[in-house]
Write a structure and sequence with these properties.
- By secondary structure, the chain is of the alpha+beta class.
- Among the domains are: 166 residues, 2-Layer Sandwich (Bacterial polysaccharide co-polymerase-like); 134 residues, Helix Hairpins, CATH 1.10.287.
- 69% of the residues lie in helices and 9% in strands.
- The longest helix is centred in the middle third of the chain and has 59 residues.
- It comes from Lichenibacterium ramalinae.
Amino acid sequence: MSDVEDTGTAIVKAGADAKVANPGRAAGRGIGVRRAGPPGEARDGGPVGWPATAQYAIALVERRRSRSRRLMGWFALVVLLPTLLTAGYTFLVATPRYTSDFEFTYQTYKGPSSLATGLVQSVTGTAQNNLVDLGAIVYEYLRSSTLADKLDKELDLRRHFASHDIDWMSRLDDDSSREGFLDYFRSRVQLSQGLGGYIKVEVDAFDPAFAQTLAKAIVAAADAMVDDLTARARQNEVKFAEAELGRQEDRVRKARAAMTQFQNRQGDQDPSRAANQLGTIVGTIEGQLSDARGQFANAAGSLAPNSPIIVQLKAKIAALEGQLKAEQNRLASDRPGPGGTATPYSQVLDDYQGLQLEQEFAKNAYMAAQQGLVVARADAATKQNYLVDFIPPDLPQHPSYAFPAEATATVFLASLLVFAFGSLVLGAARDQMMG
């Protein structure tokens, strides 16, 4: 019950006692005594219950004092003690912390493509789109034990964070395990990933220069990790291009060897040229034969069949026809080959043209393989994925964590809210039980 209700109850009980002590005046005038005299005296001939009223008032005052003392005790325990401990720690004990923050994102470089690079990438598989969320990979890498161990080897993080110049609540344990070191590292490297794909990192240390150095080392390590993601693909692309160039070199050598063997076997460096010459000869003979036949037709109309001119023209026409037939047979019939065998000239030309096409294709493929190797090596030497720290790590000038005044005020307000809420809950529960 509340203090007001307790007071009313005490007054009611005191009035009841007064009625019992002076029933006559209580019946005539009601309860109570208008003017109290010394103890034991009576007014209007009857005793008054003044000692009982005083006892209840004293009990009420004692109850209020006891409740106030309990309330002040809880206030000191819940509010004052945490505030004083926080103030003492932050003002007198805590080592200042310095924060170097930076923000970065990642980019992907895509060089100019060509037919050769497209062929190489289609075979090696590097032409496929990168479906991996690179931002998520970088985020997890910054929280990994791999990065923590790498930075520990480079900067000796354990020695810095376990220094006895740091207060005992903030420093790393000298005999901390690998898991404990990782948890401590994560508490000093705070990450937040933005919607635009960028990542914000806040690095806490107990020295401003070391905080900046650690932040720069994190950027360099993350950049190297991103570059290594595509290093294997680029190396495989170079290996494939080198193997492809070797295959095309063998093809060119085989094509040249086959052409040389064919020419030596046929005894002719260029059968197509010889065929063109034979065709020219056939065409010339056909022209001469046509002229002779025209002359014979003109002379036959005016000269006797046995005239010398007619006989000469007939002999010339017969000779040209024989020569034309011989040359035509030379093109179409078999020609002597190695070992006395005969090969049709058309077959010789067909084999020669096939060897020419193979040699030309091998040459073009070899040139494409050379270009592909040059491009693959250029891609391997160029970073395709890299980080861009558009807000580089800064050098902190002032402590950025646990300001004494701010920390003390925060703890005081939080403790006060907890105390007020607890008092309301306990008061409501007590009233419910007594009601």
